[in-house]
Amino acid sequence: MIVCHCTNISDHDIRSAIDWMRTSDAQTIITPGKIYHALGKSADCGGCMPLILDTMRSNDNLEVPMQLRALRTGVTQESADEGRSKSHRLPKQVTAA
After folding, report:
1. Which pLDDT score is estimated for 21?
2. In degrees rounded to 5, what are phi and psi of residue 10?
3. pLDDT score at 29
4. N or C of the chain: less Cβ packing under 10 Å?
């Protein structure tokens, strides 16, 4: 099945790239960008990204290596604290009347 019409990438191409990357380096983190690069292509419109991600997730070789799983425990993108010491809001401007 064609997953990306812009660059003519099929689900078979994606699975083959993942298998090749996993064989080359068992500890690599596989991303859509790395798949495009391995196929010698680059993303165009991005409309295919949901299909690419679904195809990636269905591949057994996509799994994150055990040694790398604990690197980000407890860290989420939804964290309320961005690491700033103060509020990021600017103070209200006082205007003279």
Report:
1. 92
2. -105, 170
3. 86
4. C
Query: What amino acid occupies position 18?
Result: I
Res 81 pLDDT > 60: no
Under 8 Å between Cβ of 49 and 32: yes
Among 50, 15, 51, smallest CA distance to 35 is for 15
Please state, in angstroms and rounded to a whole number, the distance separating the CA atoms of residues 55 and 49.
10
Q: How far is CA 58 from CA 2, 14, 48, in A?
A: 16, 11, 16
Q: Record the pTM.
A: 0.65
Using an 8 Å Cβ cutoff, are 25 and 46 in contact? Answer: no
Q: Is residue 52 a contact partner of residue 32, using CB atoms and an 8 Å limit?
A: yes
What SS3 state is found at 4? strand
